[in-house]
Amino acid sequence: MKTYLLATSAILMGATAASAAGIERTNQSVAPLFETGRYLEFSYATVSPSTSGVGGLVTPGAQSGDLTPSYDQFGFAYKADINEQLSYALIYDQPYGADVDYPAATGYFAQGSTAAFDSNALSATLRYKFPNQFSVYGGLRYQVISANAFVPFVTAAVGPLAGTPYEASASSDGAAGYLLGASYEIPDIALRVSLTYQSSIKHDLDTVENTVQGLGVPSSTEIETPQSLTLDFQTGIAQDTLLFGSVRWVDWSSFEIAPQQYVALVGSPLVFFDDDRITWTLGVGRRLNEQWSIAGAISYEETTGSPTGNLGPTDGLLSLGLSAVYTQGKTKITTGIRYVDIGNAQTRVGAAVPGGVFQDNHAIAFGVKIGYNF
Fold first, then answer.
1. pLDDT at position 262, please?
2. Tens digit of pLDDT for each residue in 208-229?
């Protein structure tokens, strides 16, 4: 059991990244750190969300159209042992992202609005094993983000720039954070429990805004990606069968994107979340033979009912993921599919709630991960 199922708890998230709380696109997993010997992996996922709503207090009954285009995700990891106690891993991911494109000419108040938020991160992690099956690990995480937005329903009401749509463009910014964790393992029964803390990372982005004060107004936008705490577990429950899961808390209530002139015009941030989020995942993995293993998992995130911004109209989720692993020699190929039922949400426009009502939305993700032990 220990040789072919130890990494199963990472299969579904690693092979089928999809949106979770806030604008999170990966769970910032450190699973490669637990691989045996030297290990190299590459991952790719494509995600197709379908998100649409209807106008509330602002444009009652108007349909927003689908505002979330498909996107791709890439990942990379390398792990190696220094000696019997020490090992290290380099992990690249794209932890946060948003791509919003409201169709034009729908009559919905946000028609024609666009926004993008991109991130790339590299973690360098060192792990130390104690003789008593405990281990500790920690490292640094360097992250680069960029953002831009075009919001035509926000304009100057009077003056020479009356009717000029709001627009903001922020240059990319890099900053560092850290991670700390501990784990306990009993390899003979494929048991592993790990607890990982990821720090927040603070960015200051040079921003140019078009506002009531003029075109190309320079400003600075502070964005702090949220801290998180993740409990992962797995254990054998029968021959060739593994139970796995996780509980992940993310401090989304401290996250916002609030360009200075936008807040002055509207009175609220461009992107915000009123509540922290906890995502629960539970799954089962099963080895079929020497080459094939399969796994399935369900994830849940509570719908809070708190209003969201118009560039992130989601609230909670329920998802089902299925994956298959083909092993040939030292190579392991994982493919997976994940269906996400996106929680219903209400958006806020200034003091108006609901600005829009979003229901019956979903996302489908397909992914592949190739791992090689050597």
1. 87
2. 988 756 677 898 999 999 999 9
Residue 15 has pLDDT above 90, yes or no: no
Name the H helices within the chain.
11-15, 260-266
On whether the CB atoms of residues 97 and 125 are closer than 8 A, the answer is: no
Its sign, for the CA torsion 53, 55, 57, 61, is negative
Q: Which residue has the tokens 């806030």?
A: 22
Give the Cα separation of 293 and 310 in Å (integer): 41
Q: Scan for tokens 């002055």, then name that residue.
A: 264
pLDDT for residue 19 = 53
| CA distance linking residue 313 with residue 278, whole number of Å | 18
3-state secondary structure of 312: coil
Strand order in the sheet with 53-55: 53-55, 356-358, 345-346
> What type of residue sits at position 107?
G
Structure-token pair, residue 296: 């399935």
Cross-strand pairs, 117: 98, 147
Please choose, from the candidates 225, 189, 184, the residue with its C-alpha nearest in 3D space to the C-alpha of residue 204.
225
pTM over 0.90: yes
Residue 304 gets the label, from left (phi > 0), alpha (psi -120 to 50) or beta, of: alpha
∠363-364-365 over CA atoms, to 5°?
120
CB 104, CB 114: distance < 8 Å = no
At which residue do the structure tokens 């794209």 appear? 94
Residue 230 CB partners (closer than 8 Å, separation 6+): 27, 28, 195, 196, 198, 246, 247, 248, 249
User: Hey, what domains does the chain have and what are their CATH numbers?
Assistant: 8-329+345-364 (2.40.160.60)
CA gap 256, 45 in Å, rounded: 27
DSSP letter for 85, please: S
